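tool_call predict_complex ligand=NAP
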Amino acid sequence: MFDIIIIGAGPAGMTAAIYALRAGKKVLIIEKENFGGQITASPRVENYPGFKSISGNEFADNLLDQITSLGVVTEVNVVTAVKKTAGTFTVETESGNFEGRAVIIATGVSHRRLQVNGEEEHLGKGISFCAVCDGGFYRNKDVAVVGGGSTALQDSLFLSDICSKVYLIHRRDQFRGETELSDEVRRNPKIELCLNSTVDEIKGLSVVESVVIRNKIDNSTREISVKGVFEAVGQIPENRQFADVIELDEAGYIKSDEKCLTSCEGIFAAGDCRTKERRQLTTATADGTIAALAALDYIRIRSN
Ligand code: NAP
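tool_result ok
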């Protein structure tokens, strides 16, 4: 029996683990694929207090080192359900169940897809969701980035150092992402802005060869020759597996209060997977702290 089972090993989940482990608890953290989560795709993190600049990978590695040295138990597995059973919880995975006194869900979000013609067949054949991971494959080649948030802006800047040209395709003429990043993008001679434009189709015989974009103002289309398309159009939560035990909002985010408590006593939610106004690295780690402290309170009250 674990004291706390944490589902998801991004910054929120790993921060929760630090607090729970330092309180002397037996902690299991279950991650389906990538310790560190989304932050590992960030080339430079420059808005986390105490670090002028650190790569997302290094930040995640440091967190993993920290919880490993504190004695966390790790499991790479896909969680399929959480069930409340006589005051404790059963976390079901694709290959076995785990029992815990409290559960913290920190599953983050996954990549939204463009859902355009040619996308499905070119996944892994020129379409990528991570510039840091895949950018190197496109050295000295032309690529497109789609989106107007901070991820799309950061990806464009990162790729402009590697690729010969970056087309940044955004459906509006204003960027949603940080002003500093959009200013830098606008100044970069290797980035061509394709604003007020949407992607109609991603083309190529076996791998990506071009992208067809449509200008929303005059409805004209243009085919741009590129070897890679980086989709950066936001994220969506993936919490359906918990819907039987906790309440989700219409968009699928976990409803939770100021203490990260969900609609089920003993289950807490931390980070991007929960309802909140701002989804940042700092707010994710803050949630991890709050959820862990609330879970510790919950365990203490029940054992008195
Ligand atoms: P985001 O802020 O949600 O931006 C998504 C972008 O994709 C928006 O520009 C949106 O257009 C566009 N979009 C959405 N659906 C689309 C579709 N179907 N077709 C075409 N375009 C579509 O996502 P994000 O950029 O991944 O950022 C997520 C969070 O992480 C944000 O809070 C961001 O601040 C944070 N972040 C921070 C940093 C950093 O360095 N500080 C880096 C990366 C991310 P509209 O603008 O028209 O809605």
